[in-house]
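Data availability (excerpt). All sequences and predicted token strings are deposited with the supplementary files. A representative entry, Acetyltransferase (GNAT) family protein, is shown inline so that the format can be inspected without opening the archive.
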Amino acid sequence: MRPCTIEPVTSLEERASLFDAVLSPSFGPEELPPRDRFLAWTSGDDLEVLLATDAETGETLGCAVVALGQGTDVMALLAWLAVRPGERGSGTGGALLDAAIDAARAGGAHLLLAEVEDPRKHAASADHGNPWRRLGFYARHGLVILDVPYFQPAIAPGQERVRDMLLLAAVLRDGADSPTVLRPALVTFLEAYVPRLDGTDPEHDALLAAAAEVTAEPLADALERAGH
Ligand SMILES: CC(C)(COP(=O)(O)OP(=O)(O)OC[C@H]1O[C@@H](n2cnc3c(N)ncnc32)[C@H](O)[C@@H]1OP(=O)(O)O)[C@@H](O)C(=O)NCCC(=O)NCCS
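Structure token line:
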């Protein structure tokens, strides 16, 4: 474990710096908006930006961005989580995920959603990571997997949807993953989140229909069943 300090950041300079140093090298072009759009979004009250720095040197290690109040107070979204390439595997990502969960819970959310690549459909890359190992990371942190045909909406004009994604959730309150709580909350979230970024169409309708019937399973169990 590498000792790190995690703090919310608000200044334009810090947000621009973590976009360049952490997010830009860690995500593909469809998974990140243009820099100016990221800076505009993260200046609002509904996004919390958490920066991890080395506890001794102050060097930037990673960041997490949590979106609150996405259509419903019950749902928060882990918009981005990344540790700089070369700094991974020392516990920083785990500490950032814990801090993101704390921030979502403090904001009143019952579930924190995370959009991840389906490792059966997305290849590994040195900078963007290995989708199977990423799932192992989330499984060890106790997340559940939601059985919906998920796609990440296009996050800026001119960008594409990212298909073949999985939707995970950290359960922040007892019972929040039960069908009676989860289904209406997920439908409300998707009705607000996808059209706001990306409009509606039959693919979105199919996602909403699946959300109305969704069930949650511990990700660790699903991975074991898949032999991982
Ligand atoms: C996922 C990520 C945030 C984890 O951060 P980290 O500091 O390496 O995490 P920790 O040290 O707390 O935990 C180590 C675990 O992280 C995961 N991990 C580490 N390096 C990874 C990589 N290159 N790709 C995928 N997962 C990785 C593994 O599960 C690892 O455990 P393992 O060594 O037993 O396989 C980091 O790998 C990363 O930034 N990846 C690229 C961006 C990304 O995938 N973000 C998540 C988007 S949903």
